[in-house]
Structure to design on (258 residues):
């Protein structure tokens, strides 16, 4: 009888312990939930960046904007030497163009006087057209010696030094447009249906300690089934230039998580 009571007591303790372990499982799940929020980190990148290469073979005459400096649209970044080959080529093309114009004018007059054939007239007309094309081509060579900025931004990297001879196609400078920064965000897939383009967000920038406003500009078309995440881009106004590409932060959606 005593043995039976002891067995029943032990069995009861086992059931109680099992019940406590069973009840503790939801608590373990809730503790894991915040780990998904660790993915709500943000990396800022420039919205536009470009590597500008030489379009003609020439010597680097002057570098107008150095590493880290800002510039405006159309401002000269690098000036290549046009005074040797390209300028002389343009002078030659202009002389040839003037000669072709005179030859065509004389032949036209002779044709009107019935002293030149239509074939001779057409030849001078073709020579004039070729001379005009050669002149435009030579002028373009001179123009391309001035490397101008296609948009406002900053110099990220220079690939050449002054007085170097560069070949056509060689990279000269890398530029970035940081007036509007792009925030790259990896979010858990359970947020996919609650986001839309134009939705406001707040980002706490780690390097400055300041919170900035952002708006979603792009939402990934697919989800990653392995990680259960998807990618979002948001744009951050940086007209004042206080932030830089490469800064990081933490995300907070306006109005809280839906």
């Amino acid at each position: 009888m005593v043995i039976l009571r002891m067995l029943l007591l032990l069995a009861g303790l086992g059931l109680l312990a099992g019940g406590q372990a069973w009840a503790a499982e939801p608590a373990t799940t809730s503790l894991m939930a915040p780990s998904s929020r660790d993915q709500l980190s943000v990396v800022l990148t420039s919205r536009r960046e470009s590597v500008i290469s030489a379009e003609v073979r020439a010597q680097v005459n002057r570098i107008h904007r150095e590493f880290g400096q800002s510039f405006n649209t159309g401002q000269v970044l690098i000036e290549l030497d046009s005074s040797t080959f390209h300028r002389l080529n343009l002078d030659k093309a202009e002389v040839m163009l003037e000669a072709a114009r005179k030859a065509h004018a004389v032949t036209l007059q002779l044709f009107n006087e019935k002293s030149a054939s239509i074939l001779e007239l057409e030849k001078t007309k073709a020579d004039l057209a070729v001379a005009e094309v050669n002149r435009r081509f030579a002028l373009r060579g001179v123009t391309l010696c001035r490397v101008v900025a296609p948009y406002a931004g900053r110099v990220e990297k220079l690939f050449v030094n002054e007085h170097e001879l560069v070949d056509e196609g060689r990279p000269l400078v890398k530029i970035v447009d940081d007036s509007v920064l792009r925030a790259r965000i990896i979010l858990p897939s359970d947020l996919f249906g609650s986001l839309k383009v134009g939705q406001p967000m707040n980002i706490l920038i780690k390097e400055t300690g300041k919170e900035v406003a952002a708006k979603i500009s792009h939402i990934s078309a697919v989800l990653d089934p392995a990680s259960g995440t998807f990618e979002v881009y948001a744009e951050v106004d940086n007209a004042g230039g206080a932030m830089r590409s490469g800064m990081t932060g933490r995300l907070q959606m306006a109005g809280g998580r839906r």
Observations:
- The two ends are 61 Å apart (CA to CA).
- Confidence is low (pLDDT under 50) at residues 15-39.
- The CA atoms of residues 94 and 135 lie 6 Å apart.
